[in-house]
Design brief:
α3 crosses α11. The protein contains 13 helices and 9 strands. Among the domains are: 169 residues, Rossmann fold, CATH 3.40.50; 55 residues. The relative contact order is 0.10. The protein is α/β, with parallel strands linked by helices.
């Protein structure tokens, strides 16, 4: 029998994008939950057999970026940089594309194979937003699969895309998010073509601009001291670099977003009562009926409250006469 070939898949996404639901739908019961080595963060991995392939799927911790400011971000980044993933599935929230596309802007710059799982399509539809997966493919050059994981919609198509994905198909550098940041191109030229393995020079240059200490330490040990000194002279302060890079990524997102999402006017579906209430004849009939029953209801509620008042009114004079006979008032002199 043919030997099964193992495929490694990493699921990446921001918190609350439905990434874990996608993982559960892909792996079913064939999953293991533990901790990452030496860490307290939960590690979830699953295995799926499909045809002649054995697929190992890793649900990386939810992360907003690959800056490694938190333990979750560091774990996700280390896995993407050090493990030989055949494909990375970036799960984005179709209902909140502007926010959840930020992590995609970083992952594609790594130069690794990426599939986009466009999750929560039902949420986008409920918000009267039309998300166009085909336009998404054209604008980014990525494989895009629309998914509603909570209903298992699109999960089969996503698994098929993983099985038949060409691992050599990485995003070309001219399709990377455009970074209009001072000295970015100069830093990129200093390191481009220096590394045959690992993340792309494009991603490394961005991290240097951001003041990433881990990337700086790695490059300082691999470049000549002269070249490293030249790069350091080009770098802004970490605060300025991080703000500039974040702005550039969001500019890229806002550039493509209008092509991906269009809003449709909310369509109000008239009920049977709406139709009857606005009818020329039945509408007036209903209005008179409501008025009639409203008056009746008002009297029925008010009557018990009025009875004590009527009783006091009619009994006031007899009660006064009775009290006068029992307690006669003294005659005035």
């Amino acid at each position: 029998p043919a030997e099964k070939r193992a495929v490694t898949v990493a699921l990446v996404g921001q918190p609350n994008t439905g990434k874990s639901t996608v993982f559960n739908m892909l792996t079913g019961e064939s999953q293991h939950v533990g901790n990452w080595p030496g860490k307290t963060v939960e590690k979830k991995e699953g295995r799926v057999f499909a045809g002649d392939k054995e697929i190992y799927i890793y649900d990386l911790p939810g992360t907003y970026s690959l800056t490694a400011n938190s333990l979750e971000e560091k774990i996700a980044r280390d896995f993407l940089l050090k493990e030989q993933c055949d494909v990375v599935v970036v799960v984005v929230d179709a209902g909140q594309l502007e926010r959840s596309l930020y992590i995609l802007a970083e992952v594609v710059s790594l130069g690794i194979p990426v599939i986009v799982a466009l999750n929560k399509m039902d949420v986008a539809q409920n918000r009267n937003a039309v998300v166009n997966p085909e336009m998404f493919r054209q604008k980014t050059g990525l494989v895009v699969i629309p998914v509603t994981a909570s209903r298992h919609d699109g999960i089969t198509e996503l698994l098929e895309a993983i099985l038949h994905f060409d691992s050599s198909r990485t995003l070309q550098s001219d399709r990377f998010p455009e970074i209009n940041v001072p000295h970015f191109d100069a830093v990129l030229q200093k390191i481009q073509g220096r590394f045959s393995q690992g993340p792309s020079a494009y991603w490394l240059a961005g991290k240097l601009i951001e003041g990433d200490e881990d990337v700086a330490a790695m490059l300082a040990g691999q470049l000549s001291s002269e070249r490293w000194q030249e790069i350091q002279e080009l770098l802004p302060s970490p605060e300025q670099g991080q703000l500039a890079m974040a702005t550039a990524r969001y500019d890229w997102i806002r550039t493509i977003l209008p092509c991906l999402v269009t809003s449709k006017p909310a369509q109000y579906r008239r009920s049977g009562f709406d139709i009857a209430a606005t009818h020329p004849f039945w509408g007036k009939t209903i209005a008179l009926a409501v008025l009639f029953f409203g008056v009746i209801a008002a009297y029925l509620i008010a009557l018990p409250l009025m009875i004590p008042g009527f009783a006091v009114f009619f009994l006031a004079e007899p009660l006064q006469q009775f009290l006068s006979s029992v307690f006669p008032l003294p005659l005035c002199s």
